[in-house]
Design a protein that fits this description.
Layout lengths: L2 E3 L1 H9 L12 E4 H8 L6 H5 L4 E4 L15 H12 L4 E3 L3 H9 L4 E2 L1 H10 L6 H10 L6 H9 L1
Parallel strand pairs: 1-2, 1-4, 2-3, 4-5
Length: 153
């Protein structure tokens, strides 16, 4: 399965101490802009991403993400461009504008919460409530309704 990720799933999974479970999907590709965003600003997850040998950093030419650069930040634009270039099966992306752009190009999208559901169903996460609470402590916003729906599933 070919997977491309934007920065937010990497940052939040690192912040709550579960980045390594993403390796269940196999190698994940990220564009250089995402790598720079996560590792260049001393964000949570920077060391984990630097040392994850299953995360492959791919350099893109500037023109390859140009179509998305007017509405998305550099990381999102490059992640979508990379997903298209690699004919990825899935892109990991939280931003709504980015999700819409990727979907318009026929790319399946999953965000941080969708990943958590998958990992919970696979038995890689034991207590969803604890994980969601920690995620919120780390700055991930979700409505009370969404929080409750995540616990019901």
């Amino acid at each position: 399965m070919k997977i491309v990720s934007n920065s937010s799933p990497l940052i939040f999974f690192s912040a709550i101490g579960v980045l390594d479970i993403l390796s269940d999907f196999g190698d994940i590709s990220i564009p250089k802009a995402v790598y720079d965003e996560v590792t260049g600003n001393d964000l949570k997850g920077s060391n984990e991403v630097k040392h994850a040998d299953w995360i492959k950093v791919v350099e893109l030419e500037d023109y390859e993400s140009l179509a998305f650069s007017s509405v998305l930040d550099a990381g999102e634009a490059q992640a979508i461009a990379l997903a298209i270039k690699q004919n990825a099966d899935l892109i990991l992306l939280d931003d709504l504008a980015g999700r819409r752009a990727a979907t318009a190009y026929g790319i399946e999208v999953m965000g941080t919460l969708g990943l958590l559901k998958v990992m919970y169903r696979r038995g890689r996460i034991e207590n969803m409530k604890d994980v969601l609470d920690e995620l919120q402590k780390q700055g991930f916003w979700m409505s009370a309704d969404l929080y409750n729906r995540m616990l019901e599933d």
